[in-house]
Every structure is written in C-alpha cells, then in structure tokens.
Predict the 3D structure of the following.
Amino acid sequence: MKSKEGAIIVLTGPSGAGKTTLCEALFKAFPHLRFSVSCTTRPPREDEMDGIHYQFWSKEQFQEGIARGDFVEYAEVHGNFYGTLRAELQIGIDMGWLTLLDIDVQGQMNIKKLYGDYVLSIFVTTPSYKDLENRLLARGTEGTNNLQERLQSAASEMKHIPSFDYLIINDDKKRAENEIVSIVHAFLCTIPRYDVQKLIDNWAQS
Ligand code: 5GP
C-alpha cells in the first residue's frame, strides 16, 4: 500500500437490510468519501444506472476481466458475478482517499486479508428474518425464486458476523445512521493510518 492515509470502509449485509440508506448517511457526513463502483453480471434494476450503481457487464466481459486480473476480489452471489475493480480501489488507496465498498461476506474477507488495518468492516442486518422478508417484499425488486435465494444467503451470511469489526442492527433508521457515522468517525481517529512521527514533528513546530 503506497499511501498511509487511504482507508477502506466495507459495508456488508443482506440485500434489504438498508445498506444503501446507510451509505447515503455516510456520504452526507463525509463528503470526501468515495464509492467504489463494482461490476456485476446481474441486470440493472429500474432505478439503477450503469457506472453509478454498478458497471453492468455481460458474463463474457466479466470472465475476460477475471483473466486480465481486473478484479481485486470477485464472488458469485445469488447466481451472478460481482467484483471490485482493482483500478477503482487502488486509486483511492494511492490518493489517500476514504473509499466505501458495498460487498458481500466473501468480498469482505478478501479485502480484509489484502488491506488489513486499513479496513473498517461493518455488518448491517435487520432485527429478524421476518423483517428482512417483509422489507424485500415491500421493495418488490426480486421475483419469488430470487427472494428465497436472497433470504437463504442472508441466513448463511449472518454466521460470519464475528469476522466483522462492527454490527449494526437496523431497527431504527435514524439510530442506525447515527451509529454508522460515529463508527466511521472513531475509525478515522485511530493511529495506524497516520504517519505518527510527522504528526509529532508538526505538533512540536506549530
Ligand atoms: P445486489 O444484487 O442486491 O445489488 O447485491 C447483491 C450482493 O452482492 C450484496 O450483498 C452486495 O453487497 C454484493 N456485492 C456487490 N458488489 C460486490 C462486489 O464487488 N464484490 C462482492 N464480493 N460482492 C458484491
């Protein structure tokens, strides 16, 4: 890693747990935060734009991307491929930016392995399985099969909660937003990402 100040926030959790709303709260609180746009082979939803929410690639394009080494991590989730572009993440690290990733459990593990202390990982979930089912039904973006698949993978993703730094139970939108903003604030105050000697020198000279 070139820069000592680039940091990565990984947000993981079942679809429907409210990750998008929490991302928005983070962008409001940290205007310099940058979203890493992933690639996916799943078709766009009605309100999704290519290059903003995802880069929507065909399965062939994705396979070519894997062969070229375009991805720092990728995974098959609910029958589609999703991947974090190396270039997309590396530019943030090199420039010392704060980068936000919305990726699944497998992705979180890989990013943590690669970037260690520079990663803050947060798992977001609903208070119960039933709540998740209700939210997904209300959102109406998934067909019956896909909905069942997402509920099943949510249950297996939950088993990995201990590998995360923080857990947010999203039972109250405002509280969950406040929690995530506080967690990120605290993370940005931790020592490892700073050049401590430079900080001490500057402190003594000012
Ligand atoms: P959705 O289809 O609901 O947008 O996303 C499905 C799942 O894929 C979510 O858990 C999301 O976090 C995950 N995901 C999105 N982008 C990536 C990625 O680049 N890598 C990995 N590993 N998972 C991703």
